[in-house]
Write a structure and sequence with these properties.
Keywords: Flavoprotein, FMN, NADP, Nucleotide-binding, Oxidoreductase, RNA-binding, tRNA processing, tRNA-binding. Its cofactor is FMN. The protein is 45% helix and 14% strand. The chain is α/β, with parallel strands linked by helices. Strands 3, 4, 5, 6, 7, 8, 9, 10 and 11 form a 9-stranded parallel sheet that branches. Helix 4 packs parallel to helix 6 and helix 11 packs antiparallel against helix 12. Bound molecules: flavin mononucleotide. Flavin mononucleotide binds next to loops.
Length: 332
Amino acid sequence: MVKIANIELGEFPLLLAPMEDVSDPPFRALCKAQGCDMMYTEFISVEGLIRDADKSVAKLDIYDYERPIGIQIFGANLDSMVQAADIVTEANPEVLDINFGCPVKKVVCKGAGAGILQDIPKMVELTKAIVDRTHLPVTVKTRLGWDDNSKYIEEVAERLQDIGIKALSIHGRTRKQMYKGEADWSLIGKIKDNPRIKIPIFGNGDIDSPQKAAAYRDRYGVDGIMIGRAAIGYPWIFREVKHYFATGQLLDPPTVEERVAAAREHLERSIDWKGETLGILEMRRHYTNYFRGLPNIKQYRKVLVSEFDKDALYGTLEEIGEVYGNSAAAVL
Ligand SMILES: Cc1cc2nc3c(=O)[nH]c(=O)nc-3n(C[C@H](O)[C@H](O)[C@H](O)COP(=O)(O)O)c2cc1C
């Protein structure tokens, strides 16, 4: 049984990666329904949180049906981090997660996210301050290092464990790589081979099929796998991986009806949670993935990403179901 502190996550948990503008409550609900064991919010700026910025505060919204869940924060200033830890503690997630991996310039140049990979002592200091401040289990998500010459993740894992974090998720790339090249899990495997390491180590990066999940689980010995991009518009990845682990068989992919139903539910939940205009707008980035591979889907996608009327959108989704549902295209 894998545990973060005393939170039980099953034998080999699948985690949904935190993704800005993606892993909000509507999307998380779909992933949860497909068997995801643990989720995180999008990262939340500590500076936004302590100044009560609407956008940051909204990201604290978590619901009982999604537990266990971690709220993820990013920042670089110790006082702000500690104050934000109080706000997160009040929001009462199972876990407080710290992002030390975001490679985006506007985050890194302030020394936050992956920026901290250039200053490991500071990373340890910030983490310790938060561990000391909250009763919540604290976890960290990070990358291998800043660049090829500074992949200090093995040392980082020990030091963070020593100051009390309860799990570590590692994306097998450096900051410099951004999202380029293939994620390299070999150092993640080495951390798992280190007898001093007792906390769960979750591997992350490029898992996009049940077979790859099984291969990486076996090769690198991780305690669980975190999946990001492969879940966007495809929450079924969680049930597919679980089914493959349990039976060695591949599940059939979702039917067009299931895809339409998921996109519809996602849209409904977006509208419920964000209001009609924003809900419709922010749903636009998801349609391509829900309907990937359907021939001649372009004409429908055009409507989905430009229409503002929700009934027209539901109508278009229904039409996709009717047009493709009974055709050979249903089998992608
Ligand atoms: C659109 C997008 C937004 C992301 N936002 C976050 C974030 O808020 N916090 C974080 O720790 N990582 C973030 N990431 C990184 C992912 O959590 C993950 O580490 C990365 O995508 C690699 O995993 P994957 O290959 O399974 O996608 C983001 C990635 C993407 C694609």
